Amino acid sequence: MARTGTGAAFWLIFRRDLLLAFRHWDHVVQPVVFFAMVTTLFPLALSPELGELRQLAGGVLWVAALLAALLGLDFLFRSDHADGTLEQLLLSGQPLALMAIAKAAAHWTACGLPLVLVSPLLAIGLGVPTTALCTVMLSLALGTGILSALGAIGAGLTLGLRRGSMLLSLLVLPLAMPALIFGARAIDMSIHEDTARGPLLLLAAMLVLVVTLAPLAVAAALRISAE
Amino acid sequence: MSWTWLHKLSSPPHAYRITGRLAPWLGWPALALIVTGLYGGLVLAPADYQQGDGFRILYVHAPSAWMSMFIYATMATAAAIGLIWRIKLAHGVAAASAPLGAWFTFLALATGSIWGKPMWGTWWVWDARLTSELILLFLYFGLMALRASIEDRERADRATAVLAIVGIVNLPIIHYSVYWWNTLHQGATITRLGKPSITGDMLWPLLVMLAGFTFYYFAVLMTRLRAEILRRERDASWLKTELSA
Fold this sequence. Notes:
Chain A is mainly α. Chain A has nine helices and no strands.
């Protein structure tokens, strides 16, 4: 029997995961609704004054997006683990690190990308000027990408554990803090009509690093968890 | 070169005996060094011209901060060794180190906070050092939580090892990003513990304390490692003969 090429396997997994994600469309919508709701909490808790909210908008958007993206991470490997797909992946002879990054990429497309797409709307609600919306989307796109890759490590390690989702946040959030720093900073700078190039480039560098190294850790984690 | 000594060392019965023999040889020097360092730091060293006697907490604070990072590095190295060469004892070292590291981190934060109250006028500031130390504490908590929530010991060992390695790759990034963040947000509102080339009679107690804390860590590590070996090997036959002897 001819062996499937690695590239083909990558696309197969990517497409399969996306298909599954969009069939359970509530999994796609829930983080977005959560994102919108957490963002709404801040004006209620702090002040409806747009001038004040604008000062906090970068941080609020980022924290809300991080938490929303974390929600979806729990499902990353769980159903595959439950129905045996994960074992098949392990036995398939394909490089597990690449398969893991395919799954993380699909997860980002189904969970991170929708957050990025609604973020301008929420940003306007927080008084962010329209000139900064591009930076908002870009920084969140890079940031949720970093979180998807980092979170895959946590999801692999906590696979099949009781109270896994709580533990997952505990493991992943400290690792994601640098991304938060630069991401929120980038939005803040562009709100103040400063060029946000520096933090965005750093964020992109971080994404490259994480996408390069995290798959190896994810593969190791999956092998440990699936034993 | 023969590696048999290493394999011998990593066998639980041998390690159990060696650690038992080593613990007092590390523990007593630790006590002597800490007592000497404390006497030197609290009594002999001159008061700081700016901070008065308040600076003396440095003699606990700085060694704790050093230990918090040193232990993380030791733990991650042990975890990597355990993961790569499948040496159970190395995982034992990592497991025994994590709570110790967390305590030193907490101690560094607590003493920093106590120092900060009279010096900065507040218990807590979002200073770069304090914040990265706090994140380090969270990393320790994550490692301990992960280990505690996996029932199967071998899986717990290896999963924690992966996380420890991921953490040590991430630590420099966290460290530098926190510094960057801090310089942008706070500017020069805080004069950090400036380093006006510390004088000799202030410095030697600090170095003695540093050595004392390091000895203390290894002494406690030996004892904890013994407990860890007992827990892991509780069904082994060598343990029965060892303990009945």
